[in-house]
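Ticket 4471: requesting a sanity check on a complex prediction with pyridoxal-5'-phosphate. Repro inputs:
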Amino acid sequence: MYDHLHNDLLAFDAILDQARTMAGDYLRSLPQRPAAAHLPAELSASIALPADGEGALATLQRFERDHVPLLSGSPGPRYFGFVTGGGTPAALAADWLVSTYDQNAQRNGENGTTLIERQAIDLLRQLLGWPAAWTGACVTGATMANYVGVAMARQWIGHRHGRDVAADGLLGLPPFAIFAGSAHSSTAKALSMAGLGRNTIQSLPLLPGREALDINALERALIERGDQPSIVIASAGTVNTVDFDDLVAIGALKQRYPFWLHVDAAFGGIVAASPSRRGVLAGIEAADSVTVDAHKWLNVPYDCAVIYTAHLPLQIEVFKNHSAYLPAPIVVEDNYLHLTPENSRRFRALPIWMSLLAYGRNGYADIVDRNCEAAQYLGQLIESDSRFKLAAPVRHNVVCFAVNTDKTTTAALQKQLHQDGTAYLSPSVLNGQPILRAAICNWRTTKADIDKTFTTLQKLVS
Ligand SMILES: *Cc1c(COP(=O)(O)O)cnc(C)c1O
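Returned structure tokens:
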């Protein structure tokens, strides 16, 4: 065996101890370290491949010295960019172990990972109060979940025209319509990947002052389609204002017009973990497919999401992969190789499973409620200071605001805050205006973190 490999085999414990020390140092530093990294303008993209290598311990040290300072504090309590969850302790420990066990999460009869995946998907379904009849599968993120949803919708449309699209392709099918209100940009990417085209999405009018779609406009569009099948992509939690399409009303339309309903509940779905806030997701049981991310508000490390569906057989038609050494795709819900774009699969269900068992219904309700209360509180602080202006009412866990003084601009403040490091907020645009956006999704965030963030914002605009 090669020298360094042989030595590292003997030093396995020391190497893992070193990694554990690095992890502990990083986790403890999160409240103090800059919320986002400051990257030098010039970074060399090319380093020479060593002939001999230096062994694992030296390489770990090299990484810690040269690269850990370039990482953000995104699992920390004041990283409010994008929609970024942290990792709960149980989820993090599980994720470490996933790499250690290194199982291929297929149903080949030689490992028991699919039982955990099935349980994890069912536990999450219970947390959110979604239908027991739905099946689910883990994928890498909401983009992939949206892709699986759209691919099943495509298959369903094909069947309406007597065509097995998965077998025979799309060519020759009559054109069909894809309707949405405020669809996330990943929907366009999913449509591109599915061969349906980014530009086919028809954005319908929204309700005044809202990001939710105008149901009357949707009905008019569906009436025009007559008995031709369509796809409707509903939003359950838009990224700027956490607005929800009216799923009860869309479900009622589904009784009268033929369409596949895909719901993108990437982070908004997790609102349902809080019994008092769950109402915005009423009607979701009408969905044919639903996307929900685990690496956002569920506070599981990257990368992990779940696609739920009421149409398991269609999913298998699209994603089956049969060969001499892969078992035939019988219709069972944990034959994950035949349910997702991947073939070999990471055991990414384990962090969901461990975190849900570690913290339960009440733990997750607490995360969602505390994050939403923190957002309300930040909203009140913003409103109390005339140098800032809320750009939208605070719904759930996101606060959108702009600067209201001549001294600085919203874009400049975003950069100054990034430089300062106390907190990180994303720049965004709402109704054509630049805004700052704080998405509060981390289990560690406290009211004191909000105070600290707001005090810094005040300092920066004064
Ligand atoms: C984040 C997000 C996505 C994309 O999710 P990834 O996990 O980054 O692929 C899709 N839809 C919504 C509503 C999101 O918030």
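Notes from triage: The pocket of pyridoxal-5'-phosphate is lined by residues 83, 141-143, 184, 186, 237, 239, 264, 266-267, 293, 305 (CB under 6 Å). Leaving this open until the requester confirms.
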